[in-house]
Design brief:
Blueprint lengths: L15 H16 L12 H26 L8 H27 L4 H7 L18 H25 L3 H31 L1 H20 L12 H4 L7 H19 L5 E4 L4 E4 L5 E4 L4 E6 L2 H8 L8 H7 L9
Antiparallel strand pairs: 1-2, 3-4
Helix pairs in contact: 2-3, 3-6, 5-6, 5-7, 5-9, 6-7, 7-9
Bound molecules: fe (ii) ion (FE2) (2 copies).
The site of one fe (ii) ion (FE2) has 6 residues, from helix 5 and helix 6.
């Protein structure tokens, strides 16, 4: 059998020095702009980062469907019910396609979805807080699919592993559709009646700060700088958060929805006008409006929301679709 650069000639495996040389060589190729097609060409660390990224993405897509499902009850007509179901189907597809990719890296998706300890599931905390009604669902699409789209679009545009880019093409087309669907109906409900306008505002008050927190820790506190170094992603957290803030604020401002951001004439852009970060109360759908530390926020968010573990248990018993029709 031919020796590969990774296995080396040492029966105990490559030495630290050899490993460092392998990583340095691949980083040089990544920095030169190379895009990799073949799994066997990746270095061990590069492979590990891609594996972790695809694995986290696949599992968190699953939690979008259990969340979207909570809006079904209050969807006002058959068109709205179909919109919730179509979103759920799309999200199953996103989990499936990213799961297929994760399996190429050795992740056992069946085990991840059905057998792993529910406590180890990582997702955005908002996805474990039930949607209160259909208006909140469309506002969520307008604000948070917009946030999710920044995340996955970055990988489609910049990832140094070509199959990941291709995996996200269809995903991003659908996320863009979710966002536009949400924007269209947010505008509709904003103009429909006093009562629906009040609900749009209420939903924005609750969801907007989750959009701000969507992009993780500020760059100087990030614990995964290797994703950028190996160019699995191209945009840093702060850059994406700001991009989202400009886009979400302009959308809300155009309609006249109040947001915790203001337009800074000097900087010529939207800036946050809220304590950042602050804690939320998932039982009462409220933010504290008092500044806390990043550490406090992230340890609070790791506790998960009121839908944990029930939503995942139902999913595992494959009961989640029973009440759909
Ligand atoms: Fe998705
Ligand atoms: Fe989506």
């Amino acid at each position: 059998m031919a020796k590969t650069a990774q296995s080396g000639s040492n029966p105990a495996g490559p030495s630290d020095e050899e490993q460092n040389a392998i990583e340095a060589a691949i980083l040089e190729r990544i920095e030169a702009g190379e895009i990799f097609e073949d799994l066997d060409d990746l270095s061990p660390k590069f492979r590990a980062i891609l594996k972790m990224t695809a694995d986290l993405a696949a599992v968190s897509e699953v939690s979008v469907l259990t969340w979207a499902y909570t809006a079904y009850r209050t969807a006002p007509d058959i068109g709205a019910k179909i919109a919730v179901c179509a979103t759920i189907l799309d999200e199953v597809g996103h989990a499936y396609h990213q799961g297929l990719l994760a399996e190429r890296f050795g992740v056992d998706m069946h085990q991840r979805a059905f057998e792993d300890d529910i406590e180890t599931i990582w997702t955005w905390p908002i996805m474990e807080v039930p949607l209160r009604n259909y208006i909140e669902f469309v506002v969520m699409q307008a604000l948070l699919d917009r946030a999710g789209l920044h995340w996955t679009k970055d990988i489609e545009l910049h990832c140094s592993f070509a199959p990941y880019r291709r995996t996200l093409r269809k995903v991003n087309f659908e996320e863009g559709f979710h966002m536009r669907h949400g924007a269209f109906w947010t505008e509709f409900y904003w103009n429909h009646s006093e009562e629906t306008r009040e609900w749009v505002q209420k939903a924005v008050d609750w969801l907007f700060p989750f959009g701000v927190m969507w992009f993780g820790k500020p760059d100087d506190l990030r614990n995964r700088p290797d994703m950028l170094k190996y160019r699995v992603r191209g945009w840093g957290n702060d850059f994406m958060r700001d991009k989202w803030l400009q886009s979400a604020s302009a959308f809300c401002d155009k309609l006249g929805i109040k947001i915790p951001a203001k337009f800074d004439q000097e900087k010529n852009k939207w800036v946050l006008d809220m304590p950042y970060p602050m804690l939320y109360d998932a039982e009462n759908y409220q933010w504290s409006w008092e500044q806390c530390t990043q550490k406090e926020y992230w340890s609070h968010s790791r506790k998960g929301g009121p839908m944990r573990p029930g939503a995942y248990q139902r999913l595992r018993r494959e009961e989640w679709g029973e009440a759909l029709w």
